[in-house]
Amino acid sequence: MPNPTVVGFSGNFTRPSKTRGFVEQVVRDIAVRNNLSASTFDIEDVGASLGSAKWARDLDQQGRNVLDKVVNADVLVVGSPTYKGSYTGLFKHFFDLLDPSALRGKPVLLLATGGGERHALIVEHQLRGSRLADGRLCDGQGFHRRRSGVRRDPQACRAGGR
Q1: How many CB atoms lie within 10 A of CB 135?
Q2: What secondary structure does DSSP assign to 74-141, as a single string?
Q3: Which of 28, 78, 103, 112 has the fewest CB atoms within 10 Å of its CB?
Q4: Model's pTM, two decimal places?
């Protein structure tokens, strides 16, 4: 039987990314403390087919592999940079491709990074309060971190920006 997994998904679309670094750090911590396998993905890992996909079946194999890992994770950590007061559009689009029941009952940790305290409510007002949370992510715990507070770790953050 495979080891239970914790999977991270970051809504960054540039690398290096402080948001991805934050997600990876949290995923590693959860994995180590709970003896789980761990992996982290971002928009770039999904690939170019994401932008034109109207349904999950429209993703190419690369995108489908990431989507399957997210859906099949035992624990999910999702994070987005704050972009104009909300999460990134491709981040939302990725989760909109999922069947509404695909993540039901799955433990989810919501993360966001932003330029300052003015972005701290993104978790409550955008991530948890949006269609993204429709019975899927609403039970998740959430955290916000200023981008300046995210440690630049060359291993965790091979790619920065947002």
Answers
A1: 11
A2: SEEEEEEE-BTTB--HHHHHHHHTS-TTTTTT--EEEEEEESSGGGTTHIIIIITTSGGGTTTTTT-E
A3: 28
A4: 0.78
Q: What share of residues in the chain are helix, strand, coil (percent, to 5)?
A: 40, 20, 40
Q: pLDDT tens per residue, the chain (162 residues)?
A: 578 999 999 989 888 888 899 899 999 999 999 999 999 999 999 999 999 999 999 999 999 999 999 999 999 898 888 766 666 779 889 988 988 788 877 888 888 786 655 545 455 545 555 444 444 444 445 544 444 454 444 333 333 333
* Cα 12 to Cα 81: distance, rounded to the nearest angstrom: 6
Q: Which tokens sit at 153?
A: 């770790």
Nearest to 70 by CA among 32, 99, 112: 99
Closest listed residue to residue 143, CA positions, set 82, 89, 66: 82
- Is the sign of the CA dihedral 68, 145, 96, 160 positive or negative? negative
DSSP type of residue 147? G
What is the chain's length? 162
What are the Cα distances from residue 50, in Å, to 4, 24, 40, 45, 59? Answer: 27, 22, 17, 10, 6
Q: What does the alpha-carbon distance between residue 31 and residue 117 come to, in Å, rounded to a whole number?
A: 29
